[in-house]
Design a protein that fits this description.
With about 250 residues, this protein is of the alpha/beta class. The protein contains nine helices and eight strands. The structure holds S-adenosylmethionine (SAM).
Length: about 250
């Protein structure tokens, strides 16, 4: 048991740093999205924005032979990616850097592929797509996941949750239109299956949160943090037919 009272941010980092992923996703969906990009051997420069500890970055590295830069705002996540890349002898072409998705440190028109899972909604789907377009070569690809409405019905509880989280949801059709208006040809979109949320993210996260509750036994912040996370899972299980993460794949034109 620890006496120190951690902040929400510290708890978020501690709960997530040991997880394979920091948001919904899977090997299968990474590979499915890659399948829409055509000849992978021509992809020389990739960036993975909001890479977290790099679960998907390292899967990309198995399929792409060029360089991959993972960018995230949390240096602790970036350090995990870099040490995993090193232990797999990938550090000559896979590198994590600290940075801000709203202000990318890359050369304009220099990238073949921009990848981003579970992160663009932090800055806004349209804002992200518009800013990132400048860094892609013409003909380069973007592959991003973003939480989206999957049905016409938008249950109030879910709508409120996502609005409070700072990213109101749009429908898949609306997001495809946004993608086209930001300088991309629409290539494909598909919803992530349920296990991306549950087995690959919520269940391991719940295990980590149980450890935190044990570690910070008497701390109200931890209890609040655990409750907040559990409400989020409950909401997903109740309304999963209405919303989900959707992979959007586009080509810069
Ligand atoms: C839901 S997690 C997804 C992580 C990883 N892509 C995955 O799918 O497992 C979102 C990530 O985006 C990062 N992030 C959020 N806002 C950011 C910003 N403005 N610039 C850089 N990274 C950001 C967070 O630190 C976090 O690692």
């Amino acid at each position: 048991m620890e006496n120190k009272q951690p902040t929400f941010l510290e708890l978020l980092l501690e709960a997530h740093i040991g997880l394979e992923r920091q948001g919904p996703g899977s090997r299968k969906t990474v590979e499915k999205a890659l399948g829409f990009l055509g000849d992978l051997s021509r992809i020389e420069k990739t960036v993975d924005l909001g890479c977290g500890t790099g679960g998907q970055t390292l899967i990309l590295a198995e399929h792409l032979s060029g360089s991959i830069v993972g960018l995230d705002m949390f240096p602790a996540f970036v350090d995990v990616l870099n040490s995993k890349a090193k232990s797999r002898n990938l550090d000559d072409r896979v590198k994590g850097i600290e940075g801000n998705m709203e202000d990318l440190p890359f050369e304009k028109n220099s990238l073949d592929l921009i990848w981003s899972e579970g992160a663009i909604d932090n800055i806004g789907f349209e804002k992200g797509l518009r800013h990132w377009r400048e860094f892609l070569k013409n003909g380069g690809h973007i592959a991003v996941t973003s939480p989206s409405w999957l049905t016409k019905e938008h249950p109030q509880d879910a709508e409120r949750f996502w609005a409070e989280a700072g990213s109101g949801l749009d429908t898949v059709e609306k997001n495809i239109g946004i993608m086209q208006s930001c300088g991309y040809q629409f290539v494909s979109a598909f919803a992530l299956p349920e296990e991306c949320w549950t087995e690959n993210y919520y269940y391991p996260r719940e295990k980590a949160i149980c450890e935190l509750v044990k570690k910070y036994d008497s701390c109200d912040t931890v209890r609040e943090y655990a409750e907040m996370n559990r409400r989020e899972v409950g909401l997903y299980l109740e309304y999963k037919q209405h919303y989900g993460y959707v992979f959007y794949i586009g080509r810069a034109v």
